[in-house]
Amino acid sequence: MKPADIASPDVLVRAPELAVLDVLDVALTAAHHALFAANPELESSEYLLEVPQPSVSACLAEAILGHVDALQAALGRYRQYSAERREILGCVDADR
C-alpha cells in the first residue's frame, strides 16, 4: 500500500482541498504500515478466524485497518470525481 500521487500546484489551484486529503492519505498509509509492523500476525488473512483467542491489539488493529482501507478508497473516488469535474469544466492539468 502506498499513498496516491501528490496533487500538483496546478491541480491545487482548482481543488485546494486535495492538499489536506493528500496529507491524510500519507498518514493513513503510515498507520497501515505501523499497525502491520506492530501486529505481524495480521499478515495472514485468516489469523483472526484461526486463533481461538486473538490478542486485543490484533483485533483492534484489524478493525482500524478496515477503516483505513475504506477511507483510502473514498479518497480515491473523491480524487477521481474531482479530476472528472475539472475535465468537464475545462480546467488545466486534470490528471494530477
Count of separate structural domains = 1
Distance between the termini: 19 Å
Instruction: Output the helix-strand order.
Output: HHHH
Biggest β-sheet: count, sense, barrel? none
Rg: 17 Å
Descriptive overview:
With 96 residues, the protein is an all-alpha fold. The protein contains four helices and no strands. It has one domain. Helices cover 69% and strands 0% of the residues.
Which terms summarize this structure?
elongated, 4 helices, 96 residues, mainly alpha
In short:
It contains four helices and no strands.
Topology overview:
Elements: H1 9-14, H2 17-38, H3 47-50, H4 56-89
